[in-house]
Design goal:
By secondary structure, this protein is an alpha+beta fold. The chain folds into two domains: 184 residues, 2-Layer Sandwich (Ribosomal Protein S5, domain 2), CATH 3.30.230.10; 139 residues, GHMP kinase, C-terminal domain (Alpha-Beta Plaits, 2-Layer Sandwich). It is 40% helix and 26% strand. Strands 1, 2, 3, 4, 5, 6, 7 and 12 form an eight-stranded mixed sheet that branches. Strands 9-10-8-11 form a four-stranded antiparallel sheet. It is globular. The N and C termini lie close together (6 Å). GO terms for molecular function: ATP binding; fucokinase activity. It comes from Eiseniibacteriota bacterium.
């Protein structure tokens, strides 16, 4: 027996600079900017219609399943809160035509610093849109994802991940009080190849819950604590400079800017780094890495470093000796993708 399955996938991202300036109320008051690129690690979602009125949600990564009657008022909570939040958002517009099975999984866990939670919400929005035939523009998808995660569910965080996952590729994203502008960067393929070869992605061995770091940063900004305001302003400036460096193929200078931005990022909150992260970064620098940063809000997840080609193996060995796990990756030009499959049940 063959059935229809509605699928979606969206890429995770590397944020080079500007993360934090996308967290309210900074973008509303001063305007935020983020320079990022998506990579070939993804969040996936599948929706398979049922013949009954059961909404069955399954995380393949965590082995968690929940069932809810279609039409029930959904209360997003627990490990599947994000899935319930997306389902509730669409259900409010129009009742589902039937029950369905929803499956999701990701190439990176929450707390990795690659934007996995927001990317999963983006993917789910894409899958539900595909199933319910509710076409949305990329900007509408990103805004809806932000609304579900940050407003409806009140999960602390910024705005960059939703746009990166939806649009894909290298982007310079500008955040204003009432709108967001995604500026795709037309980099030469040689520039992308050189940057990809120069970057090392290292898992620190620990994930972290980033909400408290983001909340502390936002609170410090609201209180106008000088070190935090200055750090955000400097990261915004550096993100603009880094965009120019990429467009001019200045990869090693880009690495120096990464290092400068990391020094400012550490001033946003004490939880952004820890002795293990500092040890990994110092070891990479001592073996020739030019610059780098912890990805995401900080506290764990992935460390990104830029290394001259002749020192790559030395840096890899130094990080591995400290239990860092080197992860291969490639840049991904495409953003959210949705499709319909016919599969044997």
């Amino acid at each position: 027996m063959t059935g229809v399955v509605y699928r979606a996938k969206a890429p995770l991202r590397i944020s080079f600079c500007g993360g934090g300036t996308d967290v309210s109320p900074y973008p509303e008051e001063r305007g935020g900017v983020v320079l990022s690129s998506t990579i070939d690690k993804y969040a996936y979602a599948s929706i398979r219609p049922r013949t009954d009125s059961v909404l069955r949600l399954t995380s393949l990564d965590y082995g968690v399943t929940e069932e809810h009657p279609v039409g029930e008022t959904l209360e997003p909570k627990g490990e599947l809160a994000l899935v319930l939040g997306v389902a509730r958002s669409f259900q409010r517009e129009e009742p589902f035509p039937s029950g369905c099975d929803v499956f999701l999984h990701s190439d990176a866990p929450p707390g990795s610093g690659l934007g996995s939670s927001s990317t999963m919400v983006t993917t789910l929005v894409g899958a539900f849109s595909e199933w319910l035939r509710r076409p949305l523009t990329p900007y509408e998808i990103a805004e809806r994802t932000y609304q579900i995660e940050r407003v409806d569910l009140a999960f602390a965080g910024g705005r960059q991940d939703q746009y990166a996952a939806t649009f894909g590729g290298f982007n310079f994203i500008e955040f204003f009080a009432d709108h967001t502008v995604v500026n795709p960067l037309r980099l030469r393929r040689a520039t992308q190849n050189e940057l990809e070869y120069a970057l090392l992605l290292c898992f620190t061995g620990r994930t972290r819950a980033s909400a408290h770091i983001v909340e502390n940063q936002a609170k410090s900004y609201v209180e106008k604590k000088a070190p935090v305001v200055q750090a955000l302003d400097e990261m915004k400036r550096i993100a603009i400079d880094m965009k120019g460096l990429l467009l001019r193929d200045r990869i090693l200078d880009f690495g120096e800017a990464l290092h400068e931005a990391w020094l400012h990022k550490k001033n946003l909150d004490a939880g952004i780094t820890n002795p293990h992260i500092d040890e990994l970064y110092a070891a990479a620098r001592s073996e020739g890495a030019i610059g780098g940063k912890i990805l995401g809000a900080g506290g764990g997840g992935y460390l990104l470093v830029l290394v001259p080609f002749e020192r790559r193996r030395h840096v890899e060995e130094a990080l591995s000796s400290l239990n860092g796990e080197i992860q291969s990756f490639a840049f991904e030009d495409r953003g959210l993708q949705t499709w319909t499959a016919h599969v044997d049940r």
